Amino acid sequence: MPHPLLRAGCLLAVSCCAALASSAAIAADALDVRIAYLGYRPDPGPLLSNVIPEPADAGQRGAELAIIDSNTTGRFLGHRYQLTARNSDSPEHLLDEARKLRDDGLRLFVVNAPDASLQQLAEALPDSLLINAGSASDDLRTTICLANVLHTLPSRSMLADALGQFLAVRRWNRWLLIVGPTAEDQAFATAMRRAAKRFGHKIILEKPWTFDNDQRRSAQAEMPLFTQADDYDVVVMADERGDFGEYVPYQTWLPRPVVGTQGLIATGWHKTVETYGAAQLQKRFEALASRWMNDRDFAAWIGVRSLATAITRLGNTDPAAIHQLSLGETVPVDGFKGRKLTFRPWSGQLRQPIALIHPRGLVSNSPQEGFLHPTSELDTLGFDRPESQCRLSDKER
Known about the structure:
The protein is α/β, with parallel strands linked by helices. The protein has helices spanning 4-29, 60-74, 91-103, 115-124, 139-142, 156-170, 183-198, 215-226, 278-289, 295-314, 319-327; strands spanning 31-39, 79-87, 108-112, 129-132, 149-151, 174-179, 202-208, 234-238, 258-260, 264-267, 333-334, 340-341, 354-358, 361-366.
């Protein structure tokens, strides 16, 4: 029988060899992951109300936190994540910056920009993968099918359907719809009309907002007269910029709730979301950014995390492979929403529950109980497969 010291030495040698082998394996799998954040938000123009503006760094801070989180988990595999951020005050300059980053070897991008800018970037970077964390356009999920884009920001139709389901549960079926003048207001109104039709609501009257005065001085006098109509259950607002909608609650002719872009709103993320571990994410973000996390921050955060999830599975950063794996629905992403989230293979939209909130409280989450679907209840929000012309994944074509 070997001497105890000899036996101990052999065990130590085996242990050291195993450690060296493990280190060698990690070294062999070492991977530098470079991700770019591209940000461009158009000048909103003169606002007619004194709304609190969106933070200038919305989106970017979410991506930065996701890089920190990805490095925390990636270090065990030897994966090192790095973020390069570029923000611009014009789509042309942002496009130039994106091309420079591509020439420098970057192929993974998180984009917080309007739909027109996103389309320009997708066309200019055909061998790259773009995460849309800034445009809620329904056209990008239905008719404009960008082959190298995944969407983590909810579409307008997802937000509208989340509200439509909640109002159906409450039986608030008679709507007064007020629509602002901007293209974004018109797009949101279109999504709400679609939701009304889907869930059995009736728009008893639709009114366009045509005033150009400052409502801070005249809301109390004008809003009751403006909201005169036959009996309605709820006032639905389409005022994405916040020109006048903030002055509608509590000023309506009939004592009715206000929903849509003001009052009770649907959103991909909000401070009041705290369940399923979300409170920890909120605290980490606030420690990093010194403010609350909003929907663009979350869309950028989960965009980076979805990339990291696919890279962990693949062991490489090939954009096409990440894209196809993400659309394969076999690699769910943890988004602190109580469900494993996957991308719709036809449109590249991230399936996710939608929070219904007022400024300081969570009211509900959609999809609402009882709204069923053959494959996923999350697909009751937004455009389902038969409603979209997009067929992004190989199995969809």
